[in-house]
Amino acid sequence: MATFTLRDRIPNFTLPSTTGETFNFEEHQNQHSEWHLIIFFRGAWCPVCVQDLTSLEESKSFFEGKNVHIITISTDKLEDLKNMAEENNLTFPILADEKLEALKAFDVFYHDEEAPYEDHGAHGEPAYFLVNEKGELLYQQKQTSPFGRPTTTELRKIVQYIQKQMK
């Protein structure tokens, strides 16, 4: 499992997208030499996650104006994620990590049968990674439960603060 410090290069990942394409982070980054906000969320079944994703969609133009691309990842089933994306008109990449490859590469918490409490079955927990155009980590936050994750407003503030304070 990876432990990242600031400026570490994040791992590449290749995952299926709800649009039917295969998404490769390095290829995407080569096409969009900008910052990326990579968000792991619990799943299409999680009402808080859906609300957060909808809020991100509403703020998508803000992030794009700051040259930040949003990418989201869940361990949920691709078909369920596709239905959620369509129902909520989500236009940023939503990727399915059913084999837990990206989750493990980023050391995101996974709630499974070994967890000390029941919580909607097995799933990845929320995590946030802001990376620059070189793929270097500028910010991270990982949760062990659905609570404590930053709101869209807080993510906007984080992006603005880090961009303003860059050396």
Automatic annotation (TrEMBL):
Keywords: Disulfide bond, Oxidoreductase. The keyword Phosphoprotein does not apply. Pfam families: AhpC-TSA. The active site is at C49. The keyword Disulfide bond applies. GO terms for molecular function: antioxidant activity; oxidoreductase activity. PROSITE patterns: THIOREDOXIN_2 (PS51352). Residues 4-164 form the Thioredoxin domain. It comes from the Bacteria. This is Peroxiredoxin. It comes from Bacillus coahuilensis p1.1.43.
